[in-house]
Amino acid sequence: MRPGIVHRIDKDTTGLLVICKNDTCHNDIVMQLKDHSIQRTYHAIVTGELKEDTGTIDQPIGRHPHERKKMSINQKNGKPAITHYQVLERFSQYTYIQCNLETGRTHQIRVHMASLGHPLLGDELYGRKSNQFKTDGQTLHAKTLGFIHPSTKKPVMFDSPLPEYFEQILTTLRKS
Predict the structure, then answer these.
(1) CATH top-level class of 4-175
(2) Catalytic residue flag (residue 10)
(3) Looking at 10, 12, 35, 58, which residue is catalytic?
């Protein structure tokens, strides 16, 4: 029982968080997370060109067996993890996507996209150590959050614009 941060994002991921001021709100939002009723949409740039315009990755995620800081697809000890993705724009070496989460595992989008062979641009843990762009971590942004407000019981939706560096990368990719 503690008010505070309910919805967390990975280090070097930008965007929205859910923070509650009291235990009642905290418990309500935690229950919405558990029953997967919170809408979470992320935008990302992945390396390479995804073949399909949309897809669902339904692979369990657990601690990597040898590297403590990493997570991995783990059929034996992983927890269920489901990510839906949709292509927003295609470029010659990159794809701009939107991801919707059914579950919320540590590094979920990063692990799932890397498992397809399309790690996030700027993700040094699951992708390449260097890239041609200046990134502030991986190009992953918690874009929208929607849930039932604990006090008013009405649906609320929040949106966060992409950070400047992310927009600059998209502008450069659109010119090439």
Answers:
(1) alpha beta
(2) yes
(3) 10
